[in-house]
Design a protein that fits this description.
Number of helices: 7
Shape: globular
Strand content: 15-25%
Number of strands: 7
Distance between the termini: 47 Å
Order of helices and strands: EHEHEHEHEHHEHE
Oligomer: single chain
Structural class: alpha/beta
CATH class: Alpha Beta
Largest sheet: 7 strands, parallel
Helix content: 40-55%
């Protein structure tokens, strides 16, 4: 039995490339209308083309989620067009090159926390208000192994991603009785533009963005009585050359 998703709506942040684009494509293939959020129109237009959806079913919203007002603006734009939100994929994130804490710029510190922690929390809260009214919905947060491994040079990014994992579990506890699924995906190394080439890195062994999108769809398609609150996703072979 297949589910009719033709009237369901998904928001994907960081949808211009990589994991966000793969998630948008997977959701579109499943029948969802999508709201594509990022800062670069050209990239979002490419994502829209890749979904195969017409403009009325693939809303483009240009914004910087580091801005305090951006989450509310994104939700408002989605509701103005579609009147509902069924799935939120919090994928947007950012980190500078590895930097020891004493050398980290204050602007970068603020940007890391705003994009990787504050924005997804704000979006989840706003989406949950809408979802709770209908008694259903799915919120997926794309986390990172950095939140567990806490590597040197990534102190603030690791703290933000660890915070996102804690938020996911606490939010699920808050929202489960509304019928809302809240889940995090914790991927290992994913072959995207965000990871620069490295002589010690075997890119062919890395995860693909589509692998993360498949995990998102696993959560979206989970039965109503079950929620995979956290999915860890690792490459089968170690991408780091020894």
């Amino acid at each position: 039995m297949t589910t009719d998703n033709s009237h369901r709506v998904a928001i994907v942040t960081g949808a211009g490339r990589g994991i966000g684009r793969a998630c948008a494509i997977a959701l579109a293939k499943a029948g969802f209308s999508v709201c594509l959020a990022a800062r670069t129109r050209e990239q979002l237009e490419q994502t829209r083309n890749a979904t195969g959806l017409p403009p009325e079913r693939s809303l483009i919203v240009l914004l910087d989620l580091a801005a305090a007002e951006a989450p509310a603006a994104l939700l408002e734009a989605t509701l103005d067009l579609h009147g509902r939100i069924d799935v939120l994929v919090n994928n947007a994130g950012w980190a500078p090159a590895r930097t020891p804490l004493p050398k980290l710029r204050e602007d970068d510190l603020d940007q890391i926390l705003a994009l990787n922690l504050r924005a997804p929390i704000a979006l989840a809260r706003l989406a949950a208000i809408q979802m709770a009214e209908r008694g259903t919905g799915t919120i997926v947060n794309i986390a990172s192994n950095a939140g567990r491994l806490a590597p040197a040079g990534e102190a603030v990014y690791a703290a933000a991603k660890a915070g996102l994992l804690a938020f996911t579990k606490a939010a699920f506890a808050d929202l489960r009785h509304y019928g809302i699924k809240v889940a995090a995906i914790v991927p290992g190394l994913v072959d995207t533009e965000l990871i620069p080439d490295n002589k010690r890195l075997n890119r062919s062994a890395m995860l693909r963005a589509a692998d993360v999108a498949a995990a998102v769809m696993q959560i979206v398609n989970a039965p109503a009585h079950a929620c995979p609150v956290e999915i860890s996703l690792e490459p089968q072979a170690d991408p780091m050359k020894r």
